[in-house]
Amino acid sequence: MAKQLTNHFGSTVPDRAEFSHFTVSERRASGVRQIDLMLAVQGRLRRLGLSKRTETAYTGWIVRFLRAFPGRHPIRLGKGEVEAFLTALASRDRVAAATQNQALAALLFLFREVLGQQLPWMEGIKRAKRPARLPEVLSREEVLSVLSRMKGVDRLVASLLYGSGLRLLEGLRIRNRDVDLIRCELIVRGGKGSKERRTMIPRGLADALAAQRDVSFRLHQEDLDCGFGEVWLPDVLARKYRSASREPGWQYLFPARKRSVDPRGSKVFRHHWSESSVQRAVKQAVFQSGIIKPATCHTFRHSFATHLLESGYDIRTVQELLGHSDVSTTQIYTHVLNRGASAVRNPLDASSPMAR
């Protein structure tokens, strides 16, 4: 496998060895230019303020696209090559529809944002149709059973996922300043689509969250005493409030156990609690509870929405709490309510003597 470089954005770019099978003239015309192109892609992603995950995904797909057509600069590629690449993903690699659409989004970004081409044929490429699936939902008893088998920070994070309807990263990225324990409210920043919203905090978690905030403050003070104490901030905030990264309010409510080097630079920060830690704890607790549903961290968010609708809250309120832009996204939870198929009396039960 060809070597890969890691640039100062923390993402991989193709090494010149990737193009070693080219002639000297081809390497000059293609290899070096493609490396420069990838740096331009990453630079554009950064200027637009897209997330690190989006940057990693897009650069990965663009590199794969370039490898599929070696020796050819993307400016010489067109609809046929893009469709052939996406077709190969579907037929040969058998990737999911969502993955195909992510690859297409990355190529759209390459042609539009980096190469500056407004190509009408790109609009004509059909996106893969994602299969419609109902969300997996736990009952209230199942939620409590899972949470009771967890402990520490993992349990507190999982409790917030259910009690506040959060996505996992939204819970882990909570800053101390965004928690209002008096009003039991939480501001979710940098959610899906870079939207902000306000949601509720279970009053039963207030004391545990206050204790967790004290832990965050203590770790921050220890970092300051050791000459560290900065936390990552979005570029706009970092430029506007230059001292904010060292303030207690901007520190993560759930800080990581250890400091680490920022993947986009060389600064040493204390990141937030590990995703994998919570995911492993939830998986183990689900297994110990004897639940055979494919429940994950995101299942808590699905259960939050469904249980609110079951309790009679209107769908617009649930939409706002979840941060959905369109109410049609929230409406999927109405299909899993107990008022649906389970509320209809089965005709066999109605006619059977045993049902009387």
TrEMBL record:
Domain named Tyr recombinase: residues: 133-346
Keyword DNA-binding set for record: yes
Keyword line: DNA integration, DNA recombination, DNA-binding
Core-binding (CB) domain: residues covered: 35-115
GO biological process: DNA integration; DNA recombination
Domain of life: Bacteria
Family of the protein in this entry: Belongs to the 'phage' integrase family.
Name of the protein described by the UniProt record: Integron integrase
